[in-house]
Known about the structure:
By secondary structure, the chain is α+β, with helices and mostly antiparallel strands. The protein has 8 helices and 14 strands.
Amino acid sequence: MTEKDFLPGAYQKMPENGKVTWKAPSNIALVKYWGKRPVQIPANPSISFTLDACASTTSVTFEKKEKNDGFSFDLLFEGKPKADFKPKIQTFLERIEMYVPFLKEYYLTIETSNSFPHSSGIASSASGMAALSLCLMDIEKQLNPSLDEDLFNAKASYLARLGSGSACRSIKGNLVQWGAHKNIPKSSDLYGVEYPFEVDAVFQSYCDTILLVHKGQKQVSSTVGHQLMHGHPYAENRFQQAFSNLDKLKPILASGDLKGFITLVESEALTLHAMMMTSMPYFMLMKPDTLEIINKIWQYREATKTPVCFTLDAGANVHLLYPSKEKEKVKGFIQDELAEHCENGQYIYDQVGSGAIKINR
Ligand code: PMV
């Protein structure tokens, strides 16, 4: 699909009002997206596990306006008006205007909430933008009932990408790939696709326990981080490495090769942080407890031969990844050894999930 496919035709009807609700999950990248061109085009392809427990639920109530005089909306976060989120949503709506021109015909009330604790250091932009984009597509579907499911999902992902790059990987389930790659059929820079190759059962129920090392605001926004890849001395090699890691991941995922998985995923996480440490200005998002946890994971893996590994986002929190059959054993490890490195001892059990769902209420 190309950008043109996302421009709507004439609408078949125009309801007076209505309400739609979607719940979209967060995701955690295995091969990381870090670096982009305008508008939200990734410098390299990426792939992520869709999560399950960490999710945003968003409702959009829409009511026909007297006159079409620009975007009009209210924004409620966890039941309360949230003025500081409004500019981000305004920019998003302006960016997607040509794809969803009906929006200006309605007064919108956007209500959103997250399943994870407030300011837990878990970015809600991926799940939030995905849930909002699905709501907008759901309204479009009411205006144009012949919209087919593939286009619905691809366009939801396309819109979400324009809100926050990695959000485009939060529409569908299990494993989602984003970014054109010559060896991955249907891959696109414009939206995420369900990973089209064989995936061993072990990866379809993989666990991710998010160890909340630092719950405050991120020290560097991902917008700034992506920008620092422009003129970065190692950028080109890094981008090439991501392409090649996607090739390497294919047999690993197909065969359930945990050793190969661990090596590739940990290397990706450390490379992401290495890029941050070697940009100008340079920065470091890991905290001493991040390193303590990583060392303990390595020691535990060596001593017990349990296939646990870690990945990191652009922050200090650690995602502990392991097969679901190791759950009980790993629970003990987390409680006994890792919880002490988490802020207020907090962590969240999550696992691979099957994508966003519509909530009927
Ligand atoms: O979606 P953004 O612009 O917030 O970028 C997210 C980038 C990482 O989370 C660090 C990696 C990724 O691929 O999700």
